[in-house]
Amino acid sequence: MLKSFLFPRLFTHPGRTLVLTASLGLFFLSCSRPEPLRIGTTEIPFQLVDDAYQSMTHSFLVEGHDTICRSLLMNGLAVGAILHQRLPQESAAARALAQEIAERLQAGSRFADELLRWTEEQSLSVQVLLPKQPSPSALGAAISAAVASLVPGEWAGPVQTSYGWELVFLAERQAGPRNRAQVSLYVIQFPVGSSGARRQAEADWSTLPLSGNQELMDCLSLEFRRNRIVSQDQK
Hints:
This protein has about 240 residues and is α+β, with helices and mostly antiparallel strands. It has one domain (about 10-15, about 35-235). Helices cover about 40% and strands about 15% of the residues. α1 crosses α2 (about 65-85), α1 packs across α6 and α2 crosses α7. The chain is globular and about 50 Å long. The two termini are about 30 Å apart.
């Protein structure tokens, strides 16, 4: 069956290599492709949400489909889609920078070395991330989905987030159920847009009219949808 791939991932692990690549573009189109969720004139592809959901089931098997999709949409997946569609040239440029580092990692470079090099080039400081639960509310939707199936020592990216593009390394996953066991991450970030542009994307997600995919709209809370659903007669 023809498919479109919208949730980019690239995984490596010491001693073995697994590559899963994707593009923001629609490589293959299917006549039966589900309708996107629309926020104003911006579209969130169904496949973007479904791919993230499928990844999340590695950690959140006890959660229902609607609960996971709602958490993903409300914790950055929707805002990220809006941001990157509003700023396609900036998004493409940031992704290209991230891909350069991803290719060096794929060739065997150490994540810690690439993180140090990037922070020095950008005059940033390496931040020590405290352990967090692997949930969208704690890590952000895209990062939580990207690390859900990883084991310590693996990395993923470039991942499209509500901040920009990111490469993420899973340093530690604590013992316990995967949906509660805290994880420690190292992240290399490539911002897209200004802080103002990101705030505007958040505001638009919370205020603009909603239409399109009924399954995704049904995942959202009644309060969030109130007075925002566009009926067929209004289109």
